[in-house]
Write a structure and sequence with these properties.
single chain; 317 residues; alpha+beta; 60s Ribosomal Protein L30, Chain: A; four-stranded mixed beta sheet; 9 helices; 30% helix; binds adenosine-5'-triphosphate; binds thiamin phosphate; binds magnesium ion; magnesium ion binding; transferase; EC 2.7.4.16; PurM-like_C_dom; metal-binding
């Protein structure tokens, strides 16, 4: 195994990713570019730990891209467009140069796709599992950001794309679920490389009354909108969009029927909007799954009865 030194990693691998104002990562901090008139910076941070958020033997380029995307997903949830990021990584003893080079290639690929640049970070060692943290920076028209607190009784509740694939993909990787090779690949790919709805979020400004991304689980994350808005929600479980691959996996396993509502790792957007709002078409399917009601809590209904969910979503503790 060969591992470059701390400063060689920064100069050889990370400096080529640096944005203007980051001085090729040669100084103590970066100077951020100016925004257009009327725009505000938006900042968010999510961390990922091997064995908790991804598997230690996942392809390193996809680990990097997932780290980028879970953060861009939070910017999208605010209606913000991505500009750049800062990266901290704590490398475990078994991250060699091959691992690092693949990781950095993943960063470069997503920088190209999303038009973002690296503005700084920190590189440290850990005797424990690989631990990554990324701070994403975006921009939004000042005062027009999407919040969790604007849902009103009578609004419709929508979700983008579909939910459940990633949680089922993780079950496949953990060999708790066996499905055909084609479906397995679809599900595993969505666990390892979520989409980030970077175009949808900003396009929802003007129609969504509240928005957030689905990281912990659909039920848990809808619960945040409900609580912050001082309202309740009734979700029609049979309307929740579930992919063909996920349906096949649910049928192949047992007791997985509600996993798409609670599994997490989807990185779709959930939002509320007045029933007569015109929704944007950015090529992402949007499905109406329920409505905001007076009261509190989120109820999942099917054929007139409430479905009980043991836990609404992921919790670290
Ligand atoms: N350690 C912390 N220090 C400061 N703010 C925090 C910390 N942890 C969470 N927050 C803030 O609390 C809010 C909710 O955090 P949370 O991580 O649950 O949101 P999220 O990123 O949307 O969800 P997820 O972490 O599941 O992707 C965010 O505004 C976040 O910035
Ligand atoms: C190996 C492995 N085991 C379990 C999970 C599930 N999981 C972990 S954290 C999280 C919520 C988002 O994280 P956070 O709230 O920290 O941003 C979810 C759904 C996973 N992704 N990988
Ligand atoms: Mg978070
Ligand atoms: Mg979020
Ligand atoms: Mg998040």
């Amino acid at each position: 195994m060969s591992r470059s030194g701390e400063f060689e990693i920064i100069e050889r691998l990370l400096a080529p990713l640096a944005g203007e104002g980051a001085f090729s990562l040669s100084d103590d901090a970066a100077v951020l570019p100016e925004l257009s008139h009327g725009e505000a910076w938006v900042a968010t941070k999510d961390a990922m730990v091997a064995g908790v958020h991804f598997l230690a033997d996942d392809p390193p380029d996809l680990i990097a891209r997932k780290l980028v995307r879970v953060n861009l997903s939070d910017l999208a949830a605010m209606g913000a467009s991505p500009m750049g990021y800062l990266l901290a990584f704590a490398l475990s003893p078994d991250c060699d140069d091959d691992w690092l080079e693949a990781f950095v290639a993943g960063l470069a690929e997503d920088q190209r796709i999303f038009g973002i640049a690296l503005y700084g970070g920190d590189t440290v060692s850990t005797p424990g599992p690989v631990t990554l943290s990324l701070t994403a920076l975006g921009r939004v028209e000042r005062g027009r950001e999407l919040r969790r607190n604007g849902a009103r009784a009578g609004d419709a509740v929508y979700v983008s794309g579909s939910v459940g694939d990633a949680a089922l993909g993780l079950k496949c990787l953990q060999e708790e679920l066996a499905v055909s090779a084609g479906y397995r690949k679809t599900l595993v790919d969505r666990y390892r490389l979520p989409e980030a709805r970077v175009r949808l979020g900003p396009a929802l400004i003007g129609s969504a009354t509240a928005c957030q991304d689905v990281s912990d689980g659909l039920a848990a994350d809808l619960g945040h909108i409900a609580r912050r808005s001082g309202a309740g929600m009734e979700i029609e479980a049979d309307l929740v969009p579930i992919s063909q691959a996920a349906r096949a996996a649910i049928a192949a396993g047992s007791g997985l029927e509600t996993l798409p509502f609670t599994g997490g790792d989807d990185y779709e957007l959930v939002f509320t909007a007045p029933v007569d709002a015109v929704l944007p078409d950015v090529g992402v399917p949007l499905t109406r799954i329920g409505r905001v009601v007076a009261g509190d809590g989120v109820r999942f209904m099917s054929r007139g009865g409430e479905i009980s969910l043991r836990q609404a979503g992921w919790r670290h503790f």
